[in-house]
Amino acid sequence: MALSWARDGADWPNRELSRFVTTRGNRWHAQRAGSGRRVLLIHGAGASTHSWRDVLPRLASDFDVLAMDLPGQGFTTGLAPRFTLPGMAEDLGALLREEEFTADLVVGHSAGAAIGVRMTIDGHAAPARVLALNGAFAPFGGVAGLLFPPLAKLLSLNPLVGSAFARTARAPGAVSGLIEGTGSRIDAEGVALYRRLVTDPGHVTATLGMMARWDLKPLIADLPRLGAPVTLAVGAKDRAVPPEGTRALAERFPDARMEEFQGLGHLMHEEDPERFAAVIGEAAKGGSP
Residue ranges of the alpha helices (H) in the chain? Predict the structure, then answer.
């Protein structure tokens, strides 16, 4: 069932902070709160603002915080979303300009971290620091690297695939199984919110479209041009973006430090939001997590 703001937005986390902003053909669902240094939160592929539901209010007591649903995902809609990494970075930059939001800290989870780094390299943001939470910077390896992007592209071009996946996701335990497969365990509310998203064919199709066009090689080649220091925060139990891959890639950044969090998986900021609000807050103040 397609997401509806009138229905699903009625009890969406932090609904009172929500606004809709139109730029470059996108109608963004964004949430903003607080004052002070500005912190940009970018969710990963297949998620939405809900993933920051317990982090954003904690940060808003000390900072001006902006989160959004990425193009085609959650409640953000558009006529022709651009799912390439440079295109999404440029479109997100347009949202920041519309909001008159100059980020002091860019925080990205998983694919959102790659978008944040691309924005910074391309001049769409000029933060003092980038904080990557289980950042998805490494291309898929082995057979998956050869097959997945073409497969995702073929699936995204078939309008029936989103509906078929959405139906499958309605099965009992399907969504919690997917989440646990990333090495994380989150609360029942979080599972229910992800279920709403992945049972929306439009959300699934947009996520597939994003993944099908996810070419990280140019980003990795451009990492030496990144003008901001990066903190690479990784969950030791992350099965989606294993810490070993991040550790191997860390030396590609001109100024990076890595911090490992024991006992947490891919969705570590949802598993322990109080801790990660503190981690983000310390980075926003200019310190180290």
Answer: 56-59, 85-99, 111-121, 142-157, 159-169, 174-180, 188-198, 201-212, 217-222, 243-249, 268-271, 273-284
**What is the separation of C-alpha 57 from the centre of its chain, rounded to a whole number of angstroms?**
18
Residue partners of 51: CB distance under 8 A and separation at least 6? 43, 44, 109, 267, 269, 270
Residue 137, burial from CB neighbour count under 10 angstroms (0-12, 13-18, 19+): buried
Q: Give the per-residue pLDDT at 148.
A: 44
Q: Which CATH number fits domain 8-140+215-284: 3.40.50.1820, 3.40.50.9100, 3.40.50.2300, 1.20.1250.20?
A: 3.40.50.1820
Predicted pLDDT at 143: 37
pLDDT at site 147? 38
Q: Which residue, 122, 85, 95, is CA-closest to 26? A: 95
CA distance 268 to 163: 29
- CB atoms inside a 10 Å sphere around CB 97: 12
> Domain residues of the chain, as ranges?
8-140+215-284
CB of 261 within 8 A of CB of 236? yes
**Per-residue confidence (pLDDT) for residue 139, from 0 to 100:** 60
pLDDT at 286: 84
- For the chain, residues with pLDDT lower than 70 are 79-81, 139-172, 287-289
pLDDT at 154: 45
- 259, two tokens: 């911090």
Task: List the structure tokens of 212.
Answer: 């099908």
**Cα 57 to Cα 35, 66, 86, 187, 233, distances in angstroms:** 12, 11, 30, 18, 21
